[in-house]
Amino acid sequence: MTREIIYRIGQDEWTAGRRSTAGEFLRRRGFSRHLLTYLRHHENTLLLNGEAVFTNHPVMPGDVLLVRFTDEVPSVSVVPTPIRLNIVHEDEDILVIDKPPYLPIQPSLGHYEHTLGNAVVCYYQEQGIPFIYRCVNRLDRNTSGLVIIAKNMASSAILYEEMKNRRIRRTYFTVVHGRPDPLEGTIDLPIMRKTPSLMERCVDPENGQRAVTHYREIAYQPRNDTTSLSVRLETGRTHQIRVHMSFSGHPVVGDSLYGLSEDLLDRQALHSWKLEFMHPITREDLSFEAPLPDDIRTLL
Questions:
Q1: How far apart are the C-alpha atoms of 7 and 26, rounded to whole Å?
Q2: Residues 139, 145 contacting (CB under 8 angstroms)
Q3: Which of 90, 106, 131, 247 is in the most buried spot, having the most CB atoms within 10 Å?
Q4: Model pTM?
Q5: pLDDT tens digit sequence for 164-215
Q6: Is 206 strand, coil or helix?
Q7: Smallest Cα–Cα separation from 93: which of 141, 152, 148, 23?
Q8: How many other C-beta atoms lie within 10 A of the C-beta of residue 33?
Q9: Is the Cβ–Cβ distance between 96 and 89 less than 8 Å?
Q10: Secondary structure (3-state) at 26
Q11: What angle, rounded to 10 degrees, do the helices at 33-41 and 153-164 form?
Q12: Active-site residue flag, 12
């Protein structure tokens, strides 16, 4: 798959007589060192006004800069599997999907074929498009909701950088046992792997990595003593919401790892509800929302 991106150099790239290079221009648009290295080592990947140039070539207002990326090897290790995709948004650079519960994000031991990765690769194979599967924000198998897939190496590198710098705003919908007090707050408690478990995490103020979760009550259900919460992640540790809510005494409904052994739902009531981020290429502000799945609606 080849992606060509065209930039038109504006007057703001030549401030106070200081000339800007193509590389500096692209760095200001989120291009990582890895992307610039790719452009330096591949021919005809950077063209200025139709002529091949290097990243250190100066650019001027009015110039047209074309950047070309080619993914040569598709995800051959991912078996194409026909699974229906609920596509929320698609353009040349990103794919946003509303993932159902019980579907793993990518192939792993014991889950070689029935995953979101298999479904996405199959979706593009049916169109005759070789595709490398790059998932930006990962969800647990039993967590539903919005997932961003990068469609090329440029959008992937830029979005991963945005994620690392906490500029992708992620809001989850969850249902917890009891009623948190206060009804709105922040949990700032470090999390680490609970040895010798490979999966389970725990709060560890001395050895854990910083984890920050902001929550706000949406509604309290006295019928079953549960509370619906809007939860925003500032950091993205494994099982962060589940660990923090369990530690606070209000485990997520259906969470068999950190909650009750017998519960009101057969999976954690956790849904990737809203995503807000800047488009990696156009720089447009994007916002997406996924409706609650049927099982959480029934619980409410």
A1: 9
A2: yes
A3: 131
A4: 0.90
A5: 999 999 999 999 999 999 999 999 999 999 887 778 999 999 999 999 999 9
A6: coil
A7: 152
A8: 10
A9: yes
A10: helix
A11: 160
A12: no
Residue burial 250-284, b: 16+ Cβ < 10 Å; e: rest? bbbbbbebbbeeebebebbbbbbbbbebbebbeee
pLDDT digits (tens, 9 = 90+) for 4-31: 999 998 876 665 556 789 999 999 899 9
Total Cβ atoms within 10 A of residue 194: 14
Q: Which residue in 258, 137, 260, 246 sits closest to 197, CA to CA?
A: 258
Q: Which two tokens stand for residue 236?
A: 């993205």
Residue ranges and CATH numbers for the domains of the chain are 2-70 (3.10.290), 170-272 (3.30.2350.10)
Residue ranges of E strands in the chain: 2-8, 20-21, 46-48, 51-52, 58-59, 64-70, 87-90, 94-99, 134-135, 144-150, 169-177, 184-188, 191-193, 201-203, 212-221, 226-233, 270-278, 285-289
In three state form, how does the secondary structure of 51-87 look? Answer: EECCCCCEECCCCEEEEEEECCCCCCCCCCCCCCCCE
The one-character DSSP state at 280 is T
Helix, strand counts (H, E) of the chain: 6, 18
Are 130 and 74 in contact by the 8 Å Cβ rule? The answer is yes
Q: Point out the catalytic residue in the list 71, 93, 98, 140.
A: 140
